[in-house]
Amino acid sequence: MANIYYESDVDRSAIADRKVAILGYGSQGHAHALNLKESGIDVCVGLRDGSASEAKASEAGLVVRSLADASAWADVIMLLMPDTDQAAVYEEHIAPNLQAGDALAFAHGFNIRFDLIQPPADVDVIMVAPKGPGHLVRRTYVEGGGVPCLIAVEQDPSGGAKALALAYADGLGGARAGVIETTFTEECETDLFGEQVVLCGGVTELVRSAFDTLVDAGYQPEICYFECLHELKLIVDLMYEQGIGGMRFSVSDTAEYGDLSRGPRVINDSVRETMSEILSEIQSGQFAEEWVAEAHSGRENFYRLEAEGREHRIEKVGSDLRAMMPWISAGRVSVQEASGGQG
Q: How far apart are CA 186 and CA 183, in angstroms?
């Protein structure tokens, strides 16, 4: 069973006298910086020269420094840049400013797990990973709650790395909900697998394939959209709140029997074999090598696949139907807005 920690388990003095630099001010960056600041921790935000996020961070009352200056000022440096940018930022701005006893922190295990960043042996290396998007991390903190966090320790020359990780998670509000101990390897590999096989890759292909099957069989695209995509939220919300068993209890007997008898035919041994192959690609580093090479060579394949996805007929049907239901996106940040602010 996992080790789970709460506020009573945290030694807040482990971070009380530390200086924390948050590198990046995107979704997670703004939540980390503001929550830590309001928890009484000395924080600054490190951004690239000319970053569009500088004004936002300053307006929020945060001290903004260059990446190098922030790294030199701090003794705890949290990297919240995109995974494929972190190694270059580390080499140019962080490594020259690291000193023995400093702590290097991550919210995802990618760069440590695949040896893209190799910190010196006299620096603590920790992970604090909230299990929710930045806006939720921020909102729940303001409301007096918190989002559960994962913590991990990769290097502990100081002997206090775990206490620091717990105190950092507590500063985010995570200890109010629960902090689960893991490793960089476990977090990274399970996170990538979940994204590729279920949360993003698996779900989108399942939805589009089911939609295509119905439309190609002559059913109206609008009806197919509702049945294969729109109602997915109802089922996911039930699973989120009550687990799979709770969802099955809440749906009709007809739906439950279809789930129990037909689901295993969709996700069969062949699909499970593919899942195992994908997991092996993650574990071996093949996926990481492929993605880093793609990102550093102009992302031609990435943009091609992205464009093909936008052209799928479910996108046009969905756009038209969502326009009939403005309450769905009321108060939400647009895709264009959400894509900015990485620091």
A: 5
Catalytic-role residue among 32, 108, 230, 296:
108
Task: Burial-class residue 21 by CB neighbours within 10 Å (0-12, 13-18, 19+).
Answer: buried
Q: State how far the Cα of 252 lies from the Cα of 258, in Å rounded to an integer.
A: 10
CA distances from 88 to 82, 91, 224, 297 (A): 11, 5, 45, 14
Q: Is 93 annotated as catalytic?
A: no
**Going edge to edge, which strands form the sheet with 63-66?**
4-5, 179-181, 149-155, 124-130, 103-106, 76-79, 19-23, 42-47, 63-66
pTM of the predicted structure, to 2 decimals: 0.91
Give yes or no for a contact between 235 and 259, defined as CB atoms under 8 angstroms apart: no
pLDDT digits (tens, 9 = 90+) for 101-116: 999 999 999 999 999 9
Q: What angle do CA 306, 308, 309 make, to 5 degrees?
A: 65
Residue 270's identity, in one-letter code, is S
